[in-house]
Design brief:
1 helix, elongated, 5 strands, two-stranded antiparallel sheet, single chain, about 30% strand, alpha+beta
Length: about 80
C-alpha cells in the first residue's frame, strides 16, 4: 500500500468580501454589476459579462441573460 501524504493548505477564507471583488473589477476596469463570472488564472482572466445594447440596457433572450465571455491575457 502506498504511503499516505499530508497536504498542507494555506488558510482559506470562509467567504470573499464583496469589497474585494469590487476592487478586482475596478482594477480590471470592469463594471462589477455586469460581471456574472470571474476566473483568475496565472495566464489569463476569464470574465463573463452581462451584454448591454448601445443605449446601455441589459440584453435578454427570453428569460435568460445575454452574456459575453472575454479572455484577458496576463502579461
Amino acid at each position: 500500500m502506498p504511503e499516505a501524504h499530508i497536504v498542507h493548505l494555506p488558510v482559506i477564507p470562509d467567504a470573499v468580501p464583496l469589497e474585494a471583488l469590487r476592487t478586482v473589477c475596478d482594477a480590471l476596469g470592469l463594471p462589477v454589476d455586469d460581471v456574472r463570472a470571474l476566473d483568475i488564472r496565472p495566464s489569463n482572466v476569464m470574465v463573463v459579462l452581462h451584454a448591454r445594447d448601445q443605449a446601455g440596457h441589459k440584453l435578454a433572450a427570453g428569460d435568460d441573460a445575454v452574456v459575453v465571455t472575454v479572455s484577458i491575457p496576463v502579461r
